[in-house]
UniProtKB/TrEMBL annotation:
This is Purine nucleoside phosphorylase. GO terms for molecular function: copper ion binding; hydrolase activity; S-methyl-5-thioadenosine phosphorylase activity. PANTHER family: PURINE NUCLEOSIDE PHOSPHORYLASE LACC1, UNCHARACTERIZED PROTEIN YFIH. NCBIfam families: peptidoglycan editing factor PgeF. Belongs to the purine nucleoside phosphorylase YfiH/LACC1 family. The keyword Transferase applies. It catalyses: S-methyl-5'-thioadenosine + phosphate = 5-(methylsulfanyl)-alpha-D-ribose 1-phosphate + adenine; adenosine + phosphate = alpha-D-ribose 1-phosphate + adenine; adenosine + H2O + H(+) = inosine + NH4(+); inosine + phosphate = alpha-D-ribose 1-phosphate + hypoxanthine. It comes from Candidatus Gottesmanbacteria bacterium GW2011_GWA1_34_13.
Length: 245
């Protein structure tokens, strides 16, 4: 499993076996793709790469919550407010997420042809947004064993120092032994690992999960980072997923 870089876009090898699936993530080379505060048309920078019309795209005004919205042909081309997850069974409908250190997750059921996308910061992770997405897939007819998931580039435990109070919240909630690392009196959170364990506990096949180890803060020349960038250099990446006929 590996990330492949090309022209400001990265793709994920675990999805290579599904030619019908479009799933990519931008880098800072493509520019700031924030669609929560900037116009939705800003997404066209990335959509144009794949000949996707803006009307066939849905994005989120993310609030670090756990609300997941169902998207279909009646509400496509929309910016969903107060939402951190999207799911659809419709083809030629593409879902978007924006991040800059938080975890982007991409979901695909290869049997039922369902796609989902999640923005999981520390708050969303604590309030079970990833578990909720799996539950939404099941409600839509999925068998968990058929779900594939990519945990995209995010800030790693090498850089993500947090308060002891926040560290205690994670150890109390999840009790995953490797979620918190302590170094020189500081606490570092491994958000990717926590979300991986949540997926495994939900029954997702470990061979169906691709975890990116590229840290957005360490690789600030490639990715935007909320922690690392200044006001002048800050922006956000975009991830998209959808099924094309």
């Amino acid at each position: 499993m590996s990330i492949k870089h090309s022209d400001g876009i990265i793709s994920f090898s675990i999805f290579d076996k599904f030619p019908e699936l479009i799933c990519f993530f931008s880098t800072r080379k493509l520019g700031n793709l924030n669609v929560g505060k900037l116009p939705l048309s800003n997404a066209k920078k990335m959509l144009n790469f794949f000949n996707i019309d803006l009307i066939d795209f849905a994005a989120m005004n993310q609030i670090h919550g756990n609300i997941i919205s169902q998207v279909d042909k009646s509400n496509k081309g929309k910016l969903f407010l107060k939402t951190d997850g999207l799911i659809t069974q419709d083809k030629n409908l593409f879902l978007g997420v924006k991040t800059a250190d938080c975890v982007p997750l991409f979901f695909y059921d290869s049997k039922q042809k369902i796609v989902g996308i999640v923005h999981a910061g520390w708050k969303g992770t604590l309030i079970n947004i990833v578990q909720k997405m799996i539950e939404n897939f099941v409600k839509n007819g999925s068998d968990v064993k058929n779900i594939f998931v990519v945990i995209g580039p995010h800030i790693g435990s090498c850089c993500y120092d947090i308060s002891k109070e926040r560290a205690d919240k994670f150890t109390d909630k999840f009790q995953f032994p490797k979620s918190i690392k302590e170094r020189k009196g500081k606490y570092y959170l491994d958000l990717g690992y926590v979300n991986l364990q949540i997926l495994l506990n939900a029954g997702v096949n470990p061979e169906h999960i691709e975890l990116s180890y590229e840290c957005t803060s360490c690789k600030n020349d490639i990715y935007f980072s909320y922690r690392k960038d200044t006001v002048e250099t800050y922006g956000e990446m975009m991830g998209i997923i959808g099924i094309r006929n």
